[in-house]
């Protein structure tokens, strides 16, 4: 797009006007005066102030998400997962710093109950970005590098704290540049996404029934086998248990096999409970069903 493109000139003038006067007090007359274009030229491209604001919002969303996608594309191997999370957090903070007026406008206009005329364009951009995030995280979740979580939870963990810092900076409540918090926020985001499976102690195993240990392991295996699902999507429909050793004391659940059937709606797992020497004490055969209501699928 040319620097002298009338639409670009109008949007730039509108952003400056909204930043100076506030959206409610700004008028198309103010925008006309700042843009230096004719009344006819403005209304040829935008029928109202709301239309200008919506086009400005879409431009901001596209700019932000383009940078986020490039941050994800920069690191795709499993060893770089930590670096990618850091890159995504830093991108959010750096974008707000570099686009302060636009970020302020988008925070003010982007309410959950807002239904812009260009809502379809916003949803298309969001859907495209969600697919990129899913494509990046799915193989990492399947490999156990990161936790397999719904996209909404991933967004909350990665950029939610950055949103908080950005809002406080935009409102003047903090003076330090948002990017000065990047390292700390990135470590917090990684801690939320990195798998954390502390080893179960013998005392813990004795408090939890063998059936419960097997069911939990089966649900986790089903979730890992279907990267587009979350653990809460799965329920245990059938469990049968066979005692393999009368002497071995079960300690830890180990997956022996998992297969997914019925287009990802059924998972069948074989789970062994083994003692501290690796001897199998009990085997569980588990059938898990995936619920028809999948929050992640709706997000995509």
Reported for the largest beta sheet, the result is: 4 strands, antiparallel
What is the second-level CATH architecture of the largest domain?
Answer: Orthogonal Bundle
- The secondary-structure class comes to alpha+beta
Shape: elongated
CATH topology of the largest domain: Tetracycline Repressor, domain 2
Distance between the termini: 30 Å
Beta-strand proportion: 5-15%
H/E element sequence:
HHHHHHHHHHHEEEEH
Question: Any idea what the CATH superfamily of the largest domain is called?
Answer: Tetracycline Repressor, domain 2
Overall CATH class of the largest domain? Mainly Alpha
Number of E-state strands: 4
Q: What is the average of the pLDDT values? A: 82
* Radius of gyration based on Cα positions: 26 Å
Share in helix: 55-70%
Main sheet: strand order: 1-4-3-2
- Poorly predicted regions are 197-207, 293-300
DSSP summary: helix tally: 12
**Number of domain units:** 2
Can you characterise this structure?
- The protein is α+β, with helices and mostly antiparallel strands.
- It folds into 2 domains: 48-193, Orthogonal Bundle (Tetracycline Repressor, domain 2); 202-299, Hotdog Thioesterase (Thiol Ester Dehydrase, Chain A, Roll).
- The protein has 12 helices and 4 strands, in the order αααααααααααββββα.
- It has helices at residues 6-21, 28-35, 39-45, 49-74, 81-98, 100-109, 119-142, 151-170, 182-193, 202-207, 210-225, 295-299, and strands at 234-243, 252-261, 266-274, 280-290.
- A 4-stranded antiparallel β-sheet has the order 1-4-3-2, covered by helices on one side.
- A hairpin with a 5-residue loop joins strand 3 and strand 4.
- The two termini are 30 Å apart.
- The relative contact order is 0.09.
